[in-house]
Amino acid sequence: MQARSALFDLYGDHLRVRGGRAPVAALVRLLAPVKIAAPAVRTAVSRMVRQGWLAPARLTGGPGYQLTPKASRRLDEAASRIYRTARAAWDGRFDLLIVVPPADRRARERLADDLTFLGYGRLGDETWVGARPSAEVDQLLIDAGIPAERFSASHHRGVPGSMALVRSAWDLAAVGAAYTDFVERMRPVVAPVNGRSPDDQAYAARFVLVHEWRSFLFRDPQLPAALLPDDWPGATAASFFDRHAARLRPAADRFVATCLEES
Q: Does residue 233 have a pLDDT over 90?
């Protein structure tokens, strides 16, 4: 687990709802249970400041860092997808983006990563499609200085045509296999933790669970059920995640509160 990725997890899952800020000392304590050392935490924080995700803050517990508006928007979007709090019925329409790809290779890769994160699949070098419009995509394109046209479109052949479009934009077989693997890998991580386990152990197990689940934001566009195969493995994986994330939450919250109070 990389320190920068772990910081996104920490702010997104625990600190975002606690004001989006924390002293450096608390950040170090909160990442120690997942085996991230203090120098790596500080290096990752500096990098996130340069990238505009965090900003320095003077806190009662000492020097710290708070989420920027850009980071808050991204983490709000992520939370709604991780816990599926904003899933609406599908209206049969796709969000279609026609972009002018940046000339710089790194900028193109960054754009592809960002659009994939927001649930869009690539149909071509300039064309991206999403089953639902993302509230973040317009600002993302503006901030990146990328010209684009955006359309709401439905397939003229209805669901059969829509499913063919989905197969062109996403490899659902690979995503489904990844969900099956997720359950198999995470079961031995979370199953041994129970009500008698120390809070830091429950926190660490839940942290790993959420970290691994969050990776599906870059894989799974969370398509509506009408466009998914029967017996979709993602449904089983989501039930597994929801059950254990909720079960481990109280102990994890206690550990976070203790670390913040010690600052």
A: yes
The alpha carbon dihedral of 16, 18, 21, 25 has a sign of negative
Instruction: Indicate the Cα dihedral angle 101, 103, 109, 114, nearest 10°.
Output: -40
Helix axes 199-214, 233-261, angle to 10 degrees: 130
The residue ranges of DSSP E strands in 30-166, in sequence order, are 54-59, 62-67, 94-99, 121-122, 127-130, 148-153
Complete domains list, the chain, with CATH: 3-71 (1.10.10.10), 93-153 (3.30.70.790), 172-261 (no CATH)
Residues in the chain: 263
Q: Give the pair of three-digit tokens for residue 156.
A: 């003229």
94-149 tens-digit pLDDT: 899 999 988 888 988 999 988 988 889 998 889 999 888 888 888 888 888 889 99
Q: What is the torsion angle, in degrees rounded to the nearest 10, for the CA atoms of residue 111, residue 113, residue 119 and residue 123?
A: 70
